[in-house]
Amino acid sequence: MEILNGKEIARNILNDIALKIRALGEQGKRIPRIDMILVGNDYASQKYVRLKQVVAKEIGVMGWVHRMPESVSTLDVVNLVDTLNKDETVDGFMIQLPLPSHIDRALVLKSIDPKKDVDGLTPTNLGKLFQKDSTAIPSATPLGIITLLDAYNIKLLGKRVVVLGSSAIVGKPLTAMMLERSATVTICNSKTVEIADVAREADILVSAVGKPLFVKENFVKKGSVLVDVGSNKHPESGKLVGDVDMDSVQGIPAYITPVPGGVGPMTLASLMLNLMHCYENGRR
Amino acid sequence: MEILNGKEIARNILNDIALKIRALGEQGKRIPRIDMILVGNDYASQKYVRLKQVVAKEIGVMGWVHRMPESVSTLDVVNLVDTLNKDETVDGFMIQLPLPSHIDRALVLKSIDPKKDVDGLTPTNLGKLFQKDSTAIPSATPLGIITLLDAYNIKLLGKRVVVLGSSAIVGKPLTAMMLERSATVTICNSKTVEIADVAREADILVSAVGKPLFVKENFVKKGSVLVDVGSNKHPESGKLVGDVDMDSVQGIPAYITPVPGGVGPMTLASLMLNLMHCYENGRR
Description:
- Two copies of one chain form a homodimer.
- Chain A is an alpha/beta fold.
- The first copy, chain A, has ten helices and eleven strands.
- Chain A has helices spanning 6-26, 43-59, 74-86, 105-110, 123-130, 140-151, 171-180, 195-199, 246-249, 263-281, and strands at residues 2-3, 33-39, 62-68, 92-95, 160-164, 184-188, 204-207, 225-228, 232-233, 240-241, 255-256.
- In chain A, strands 1-11-8-7-5-6 form a six-stranded parallel β-sheet. Chain A has a three-stranded parallel β-sheet with strand order 3-2-4, with helices on both faces.
- Chain A binds chain B through residues 106, 110, 122-133, 136, 157-158, 160, 166, 168, 172, 175-176, 179, 182-193, 198, and chain B through 106, 110, 122-133, 136, 157-158, 160, 166, 168, 172, 175-176, 179, 182-193, 198.
């Protein structure tokens, strides 16, 4: 059972970007800038934004955070989005999710200029991804997963992929990217009947369910690839764990992503890849 | 084996729209208008456009056709699209596919105003469909399929759906609509291994492959629903047939769509449903 070391692959990607940024600086060129909108005081959201800022600083990218109080309205957020859309010094920006429940998330996301949508969450970028449009900015987590599989030379053509979870942020864009690589893709959701049997058909099983200890040995085909997108608190220890019950699946898949150190760091590195994409293509 | 009578259901939908149009006329209101762009002399394309014109006339909608010679450039087509985007008397318009191979189809489709995209082929509408955005205009064929299943009260929640063919026009938007109804969806393509075995897992099997006699008895689970999107010439008789080998599957599914008279008329009716959607929501 080989570990897919997302932490290491992500580090390589970030090092490559850091070299590019340094070269830009030496050539006297403008440095890429990523902005982050953080609404409210959610503990995990604050932590993620801080992490993104730290990574941005490490690789030499400018990272600005716009904090808004919990009480802001949808219109307030859309107005800030609009300002960032128009600000030519901002290459890309993202809104840390979840937003407070009184804010219309769909409306806020739709108002992002697709060219600056580093998180790939606008309808236009999702649609372009499904249409194999090369200008699509993919959602960061699916891009991270595909990049990680590529790094280990795991082929997708003709493979059966099962995705547990049909969210617009992970399950759906990942399906688009898997289809582009000619995989046969099954998307499951909370209503799927006998989900373990469906999962066990997979050559590559991706769990993005958000439930600790959800994926057990009866979900996993011998010799398959198991990708764990979950980021949950263990019900007893309180530690960060994925969706996969590691004790239960031990020795069954050929490859597995750990939590932490698997998909998480790849997502962060992919965000910076998307920023570079925005920087390079966004000069209008 | 019950026939899903698309012709009849489509007729009912068109009759309903015709009543609405007549009411608009009696109220002295503007009548909806659909424009069609037809490039070149492809025989089937000319036939389809003529059919749409006839149906438009029958239900009292204005239908304009813009013919362009085979030799036009991508820019010529985009310029016409731009004119129709801006023309306030045009509620919706579509480009008859396929376009001649020298024309950049993706670029042309991307240039359509999503609000006037009656065929639902812009990236924005496909993305919105995957994001369950109520302003999405769905691609006409998938909308027709869902509407037909609804008319026969065939439930999708928790069902296993297998879609043969992952095109941006049928397979992908249909997947979005099936996911929205909490089905478990598998999308196959030309690289799928042992496709008959995958197909046989389906409670609802949709074939959008474009190959006559492709789906045979070993593809079909007893008691399932079989939807045939194909529109092909029979290799011997030259008659219009779908993807399904009707002799081979006889008696296996519980429900089946015929060709002709199944998905085809539903697609046309759905185009007019989309036009009404554009008409009602497009008044800016």
